């Protein structure tokens, strides 16, 4: 019978689910609505299990051949315990032991990690970092997140806060408040939110006009609008793009001297801006970074897109059960 891995990438509105081979080839993927009605997490996790049962039966698999279940969630995770330490987007105000709940339904290993870490693991196994044991993924979206893979395993730290790379101080003037409660985090100047922050901060101080003036006046500026205008030659938007790229290049330089990855993978909506952002990031990175630490390190765009999460969730089972424990 076919051995399979079950994978879930839990989001605030949708749960992406998948069935994978032990080699992480995707056999099936589908989505279900995220049920946030129960703050204990039980209803949501039971719904995921029920959907797995339906799909496993529909495709004539057998639960006795499930090698494990990998689950990614949008919140801080105690990896050793499988506990989510609260998840705002899921309306879980308290700790939820996802592993313990899911083990009530299945008789196989269950591994849980946060969404940024599993996205990094997905890119390491089947995406832009494939074939490397040292990969860092940076997600450039509304916020800035990331995951660090070192020597083939996710860096969690002693309490699960390892790789919270959006929250070190990069804006030393502390101009913008971060959602974490502090000011000056790199997320406030190098994410889509950061782009808007910088536009609103710099525009009143500059003397030249911009094609996005009306968007600024109407408070409708987006990172995409800024990057598109920069590509069209708007000098103000080029200035903002270079500022953002410099911050991200600085982040990449710190990552290089800390974990020395083979690949730094840029994902999230902002990464689709293309060369006008990516090439500026590379330039600043090479200017800043200790030469031996940047040797043969490549800054690349993510490949898996929305499949990074479920691929990485399945990758938890491959990494920590099949490879580490030698389970066949």
UniProtKB/TrEMBL annotation:
Which BP terms from GO are recorded?
A: glycolytic process
Keywords carried by this UniProt record: ATP-binding, Kinase, Nucleotide-binding, Transferase
What SUPFAM superfamilies does this protein's entry cite?
Actin-like ATPase domain
In its UniProt record, a GO molecular function of this protein is: glucokinase activity
State which Enzyme Commission number(s) the record gives.
Answer: 2.7.1.2
Can you quote a single GO CC term? cytoplasm
Q: Which family does it belong to?
A: Belongs to the ROK (NagC/XylR) family.
Protein name per Swiss-Prot or TrEMBL: Glucokinase
- Which species? Staphylococcus aureus
